[in-house]
């Protein structure tokens, strides 16, 4: 199998690690429309309980905005600026911390507007994915899925948080030459998910959220 080259992101791989198993969807991945994807996801936003294990975890939300493209549903991703203090140069969903009184959906669409000028009125709330807790940043992340009727004119905003905007087909992320897993740490280890594109590598919390999305729609 020929792997795609991926990007130059710094991957803090530990000394003890091993290659992981292929995902459960290999052989079943195919192009799906946004309507097909939404039909395979749990209905609604705000239906899952918010139960962080860490009392100090900071509540955050990210937006997985979907639109139909030439190869089925595409997801909006961003490349974080190389000048940021944390997660610099990484590929992520638009998103960030919740302001006081905000719901995860409100925070996700607000952050998407602040980062890439995505008009919140264009995004329809459709689903909520499994919540993710991170150790390094001590964040509790609620991923919400939104639908777009057409591909909008989005671009990095003047805030300087984002260097690049990407639209990536979900089927491309699921393909064997793109996706792989690793187990980090001794014994069984912690499973990490990587998506190697032609010039970028998606991993970390974003990789975990995408894995949950792909596993669900290709079940």
Structure description:
The relative contact order is 0.26. The protein has four helices and twelve strands; from the N terminus they run βαββββαββββαβββα. 17% of the residues lie in helices and 32% in strands. With 219 residues, the protein is α+β, with helices and mostly antiparallel strands. The strands form two sheets. Strands 2, 3, 4, 5, 6, 7, 8 and 9 form an eight-stranded mixed β-sheet that branches. The model has no long low-confidence stretch (mean pLDDT 92).
- Total number of distinct structural domains: 1
Low-confidence stretches: none
CATH topological fold name = Nucleoside Triphosphate Pyrophosphohydrolase
What structural class should be given to the helix and strand makeup?
alpha+beta
- What is the strand content? 25-35%
CATH architecture: Alpha-Beta Complex
What is the H-and-E element order? Answer: EHEEEEHEEEEHEEEH
Give the CATH class. Answer: Alpha Beta
The span between the termini is 23 Å
